[in-house]
Amino acid sequence: MAVILLVGPPGAGKGTQAERLVEKYGWATLSTGEALRRHMGEGTKLGIEAKKYVNEGHLVPNETVLGMLREEMDGLTAQFILLDGYPRNVVQAQTLETLPEKYQVQLAVHIDIPLEKLVARIEKRFEERGRADDQPDKFRNRLEVYDSETRPILNFYIEKGLYHRVDGEGSIDEVFSRIESVLKADSVL
Ligand code: B4P
C-alpha cells in the first residue's frame, strides 16, 4: 500500500479526478473535505466542531483532521490510497511522514489551474448544490487560505522529488488522461 496525493486549489477537480481513478483502477480514496461534510451532515461532535471552520472557508484544526484521517485510513485495504485534500499545510505534510510505512507518499500530483477558471466552476457548483463554503465571499477565503497555507506544500514535495504538475484546464477527460500519463511515467500504472 502507498499514498498518492491529489493537490490543488479548491475546485481544481481533485474530488472529480479521484472518483474517476477509483472507478477505473479500484483504488481507495479518502477526501478530508467529503469526510468533514459527512460528519457535519450527521451532526457528530467532530462535525459540529468542523462546521465553524468549513462554512467560513477556513481550515479545520490539524489535530481534529488528523484524528479523523487515521480513523478513515485504518479501514482501507487497496494497493493505493488517493488522498484528496490532505495535507493542506506544511504541518499536515510533516505529520503524514510520521505515519506507518504503508501510508507514506509515493507521488504528489498537483492539479494546476488559473484562478478565473476556478471561480466559474465554483459559481456553477454553488448554483447547483448550494454548498455553504462555495458562497463567493467564503470561496475567496478558501483561495486565500490555499495561497498562504497550502501552496507551500508544493515546495515541500518538490524538494522530496515526489512532485508532478498536471495542467488542470480542459475537460474532465483531458485532465484525467494527463494524470494517467504522470502515473504511468512513475510506474504506478
Ligand atoms: P474540499 O472538499 O477538499 O474542496 P473542493 O472545493 O471540493 O475541492 P476539489 O478540488 O475536490 O473540487 P471538485 O473536484 O469538487 O474542502 C472543503 C473544505 O473542507 C476546506 O475549505 C476546509 O475547510 C475543509 N478541509 C478539507 N480538508 C482539510 C484538511 N486537510 N485540513 C483542514 N481543513 C480541511 O471540483 C469542483 C467543481 O468543478 C465541481 O463542481 C466539478 O464538477 C467541476 N469540475 C471538476 N473538474 C472539471 C473540469 N475539468 N472541467 C469543468 N468542471 C470541472
Percent range for β-strand residues: 5-15%
Uncertain runs are none
Number of helices: 9
* Run of helices and strands: EHEHHHEHEHHHEH
Please give the alpha-carbon distance between the first and last residues. Answer: 14 Å
Strand order of the largest sheet: 2-3-1-4-5
Taking the sheet with the most strands, its summary is: 5 strands, parallel
In terms of structural class, how would the helical and strand content be classed? alpha/beta
The gross shape turns out to be globular
Rg over CA atoms: 16 Å
Ligands in the structure? BIS(adenosine)-5'-tetraphosphate
**Average pLDDT rating:** 96
Question: How many E-type strands?
Answer: 5
- Helix-residue proportion: 55-70%
Give an overview in words.
It is a single chain. The chain is of the alpha/beta class. It is 55% helix and 15% strand. It contains nine helices and five strands, in the order βαβαααβαβαααβα. A five-stranded parallel sheet has the order 2-3-1-4-5, with helices on both faces. The chain is globular. The mean pLDDT is 96. The structure holds BIS(adenosine)-5'-tetraphosphate (B4P). Residues 8, 10-16, 31-33, 36, 53-54, 57-60, 65, 84-86, 88, 92, 121, 125, 133, 142, 171-172, 175 line the site of BIS(adenosine)-5'-tetraphosphate.
